[in-house]
Structures are given as structure tokens and as C-alpha cells.
Small ribosomal subunit protein uS17
Amino acid sequence: MPKRILQGKVTSDKNDQTVTVLIERRFTHPVMKKVVRSTKKYRAHDPLNQFKVGDTVRIIECAPVSKSKRWEVLVEASA
């Protein structure tokens, strides 16, 4: 099974080797037929501490690194 890759914005880089990434997804509501925005935060492993708040990054699933980290930063996305 392939690993999921998500793109989002870094909202926090206060922890060592960890960034918090906000992922937004849009979908059509099944009853209202209106586009709905849903957000979720993921904690991702950033071993070099190179990403700062506001950066757009891509994260990929990985084996558990800690209690809350199941993702790691893949590469900085352009724009």
C-alpha cells in the first residue's frame, strides 16, 4: 500500500525536530451540496529543524517516530 503524501502549512516549529502542519481539505457536503473546508493538524518529524512557521511543506507517512509523530517532512513545496 502506498504511503500518503499531504501538503500544508507549518503552524508551529517550537519543538525540537518537530513541526506542526495544518492540512486543509475541501469536499462537497453530501446533503447541502456546498463546498466545505475541513482542517486537521499533523505533527511531522523535521530532523534538521529547517522549516519555519508559514512554510509550505509536503509530509509523508512513516513508521512511528514518537508518541504523536507518524509523519515526516518530505520536501518544501514551491510557492
Observations:
- The chain has one domain: 5-76.
